[in-house]
């Protein structure tokens, strides 16, 4: 495993898919469902995250090439998306690109049908997550980094699923203050990662910036 790559990728993917910050959203979306139904939704959401995230990681670069977009172009644009998401987290606001607009929230389906939409997409695997998966998958140059990528992503989805599985119990003990602190901390980390994405992309597109 490439430890440096794994730590950096974990920091980015955890900040975006943050199980603690998304726990209240899960409870809100599944309100009215029994504990058994909530756990079934959690398992389905975890499976969908693996499938959808894996698809973007595996085919994302090829899709960009199909549309004539370089990874560096996407790194700059995606970095801006991630930065906006981070700024929303720092200011205590929800990102409509991940959590949906007010109109979309009103149209959300019944609790037993939300595992894919909106829970997996766009809340868990939204623009920020997709950007992170594509950018980091493009940085894979060998077996060590590939192993790190797979282990971190699968582990993150497993942790997310476990958190949602125990949502009824955790929701009673997780204070609003703890959620706010976690959101602000992850927002700062995510902002720094977004700036790094943008700068890496700009250095490749505008070599003069690299000195």
Detailed description of the structure:
It is globular and about 55 Å long. 80% of the residues lie in helices and 0% in strands. The protein has 11 helices and no strands. It is an all-alpha fold and 211 residues long. The protein has one domain. Helix 3 packs across helix 8 and helix 4 packs antiparallel against helix 11.
Layout of SSEs?
Blueprint: H1 3-17, H2 19-29, H3 35-66, H4 71-90, H5 96-99, H6 102-106, H7 115-124, H8 127-138, H9 143-165, H10 167-173, H11 176-205
Count of domain modules: 1
In sequence order, what are the helices and strands, one letter per element?
HHHHHHHHHHH
Structural class by sheet pairing and helices: mainly alpha
Strand count, sense and barrel status of the largest sheet are: none
Rg on CA atoms, Å: 17 Å
Give the % helix: over 70%
Q: Averaging pLDDT over every residue, what do you get?
A: 83
Shape: globular
Low-confidence blocks of residues:
none
Structure annotation, total helices: 11
How many angstroms does the end-to-end distance come to? 32 Å
The quaternary structure here is single chain
- Fraction of residues in β-strands: under 5%
What is the total tally of β strands?
A: 0
């Amino acid at each position: 495993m490439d430890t440096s790559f794994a730590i950096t990728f974990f920091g980015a993917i955890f900040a975006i898919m943050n199980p603690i910050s998304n726990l209240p959203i899960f409870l809100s979306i599944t309100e009215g469902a029994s504990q058994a139904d909530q756990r079934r939704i959690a398992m389905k959401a975890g499976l969908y995250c693996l499938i959808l995230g894996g698809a973007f990681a595996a085919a994302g670069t090829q899709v960009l090439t199909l549309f004539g977009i370089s990874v560096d172009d996407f790194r700059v644009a995606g970095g801006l998306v991630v930065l906006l998401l981070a700024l929303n987290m720092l200011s205590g606001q929800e990102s409509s690109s991940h959590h949906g607009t007010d109109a979309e929230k009103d149209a959300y389906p019944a609790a037993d049908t939300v595992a894919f939409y909106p829970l997996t997409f766009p809340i868990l695997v939204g623009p920020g997550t997709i950007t992170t998966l594509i950018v980091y998958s493009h940085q894979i140059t060998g077996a060590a980094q590939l192993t790190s990528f797979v282990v971190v992503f699968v582990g993150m989805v497993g942790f997310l699923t476990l958190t949602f599985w125990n949502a009824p119990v955790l929701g009673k003990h997780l204070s609003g203050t703890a959620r706010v602190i976690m959101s602000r901390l992850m927002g700062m980390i995510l902002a720094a990662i977004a700036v790094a994405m943008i700068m890496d992309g700009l250095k490749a597109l505008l070599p003069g910036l690299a000195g």
